[in-house]
Each structure stands twice: as C-alpha cells, then as structure tokens.
Predict the structure.
Amino acid sequence: MKTHRKTRPGVPPDFFAAEAHGLEWLRAATSLRVPEVLEVGPDFLLMEWLESAPAVPDYEERLGRGLAELHRTGGPPGLERDNFVGTLPQVNRTCAGWCEFYIERRLRPLLLDRWRDRFERLFAVLPGWLPDEGLSRLHGDLWAGNVLVGPAGEPCLIDPAVYVGHREVDLAMMRLFGGFGPRVWASYAEAFPLSAGYTERIPLYQLYPLLVHVHLFGGGYAAQVEQALARLPG
C-alpha cells in the first residue's frame, strides 16, 4: 500500500488526531472511499495514498448517491469532540436543537462587529424558518477540492471537518465554489429528495464557510457575506 504522510507546521497538538477521527467517522457511514488512517501523531497523519485514475462513467451518480447515503446517518447536533475547519477551531458541543447549534456554534463565534446587528436580526427569525427534519453526518468542508478521483476511478472524500448538522450545509458548500455536475445533484435528489424551501436556505448555510474564509484569507470574502445576508430575512 502506498502511503501519504501529511504534515503542517504550527498546528495545534490535536489537529491531526481530529482529522484522523473525522476520516474514520466518515468511513463508518458511507460507501464512498475515504483514505484509511494508518498512524497519527501530534505533528503528522499517515494514511493510504489514493492514486488518481480516470473517472468511471457513473462517477457523478456514485458521488450523489454516496453523499445521500452519508446524510441518512445522523444524531443530535454536534460531535463528541471538537475539531477544525481549515486551521480554525470548530466547537462541536451539542445544543438543544439544530437552530441553536448553527447560531451559537457556527455563526456567532465568527461575527465581525460591523455585521453584528444584521446577524442578530437574522438570528431572531431563524427558529421559525429552519426546517424540522432529522440531522445528518456532514463532511463539513465539502468543496470540490476535497473530492478526489480514486485508484478505481471512484469518488473519494478527504480533509473533513465533520459534525452532525443539517444536510443542506454540505449541499450549500458544494454550490458555493462550484465544481459539481448536474448528474451529482440529480442522483442525490433521487436517493434523498430535498426539503421544501431548500433553495431559499442556500445563502444561510453558505454564511458559515464564507465567514471561515474571511478569517482565514482576509476581507476579500466580506462582499460575499453581505450578498448572502441580503438574500435572507431579518
């Protein structure tokens, strides 16, 4: 087996342990391929190397069905441990419900002062606006760069920021930067139909990754935060 030793200078001591946990947590819930963790230490993660091959003809359908399969496994909001999104700490302590979790564990910790009043107006209307449905295991950072073509041409998931939350969080992230074809969406919806009002909630669930990008990469993403807010109530 070929292996890949992942390192990153200056990360917290539990950074790679959190990633290893996330990979194994995904492997337990989906038939999509996830690299096997072989060893983890405070400054490295050793895992199997997934050599890329040409994608199989039904690659997009497999990806859509595999994500639907992942999202059919759930639980209470949060996770038994904290982890990271990028290099930002991600607190996963559970809350009474999903709406409270998304406000208190995801959006509020990343607010900048200039947006605070606008976000508080949004928070006031969310309890009556978010759908009441079962929660899902989430990849948590599901942009196209974290989905690879594997050795057999199959879709593979890497670099998770996992927790249990609303499945539309992953779907909104997939739409934020693009890179997923129409057959992915069609096969997902066939396997796990979307809830009413899904499209109206996309900007809500894009706020978290956009705020993460503001903190990691600077103010260039601030305009996208404001554009998302302009499409939301409050």
Observations:
- The two ends are 53 Å apart (CA to CA).
